[in-house]
Amino acid sequence: MKKQMHSEPAHPWQDKRLTPDERARLVVTAMTEDEKFAWLSAPIAVPIPGRPPIPDGALGSAAFYPPIERLGIPGIQQSDASLGVVNPGGVREGDEATALPSSLLLGATFDTETARETGALLGRQARAQGFAVLLAGGANLVREATGGRNFEYVGEDPLLTGRLVGASVAAIQAEGVVSTVKHFSLNAQETGRVMADSRIEEAAHRESDLLAFQIAIEEGRPGSVMPGYNLVNGHYAGENAHLINGVLKGEWQFEGWVMSDWGATHSTEKAALAGLDVQSGADFDAEHYFGEPLRAAVREGRVPPERIDDMVHRQLRTLFRLGVIDNPPTPGGPIDLAAGRRIAQRAAERGLVLLKNEADTLPAAQGLDHILVIGRHADAGVLAGGGSSAVTPKGSLVEPSGFDRVWSDRVHHPSSPLEAIRAEAGAGRVDFLDGTDHDAAVAAAEGADLVVILAEEWRAEGLDLPGVGLPDGQEDLIEKVAAANPRTVVVIESGGAVSVPWASKVPAVIAAFYPGIGGAEAIAGVLFGRVNPSGRLPVTFPAHVGQLPRPEQWDPATTTSNPNQERIGEIFEVPYDIEGSDVGYRWFAREEHTPHYPFGWGLSYTTFAFSGLTVTADGADVRVRGVVTNTGTREGAAVPQVYVGRACQDGADFVPRLAAFDRVHLEAGQSRSVELCLEPRVLARWDDVDGAFHIAGGDYEVRIGAHALDEDGPTQTIKLATSLLH
Question: Which of these CATH numbers, 3.10.450.50, 1.10.287.130, 3.40.50.1700, 3.90.580.10, describes 347-545?
Answer without folding.
Answer: 3.40.50.1700
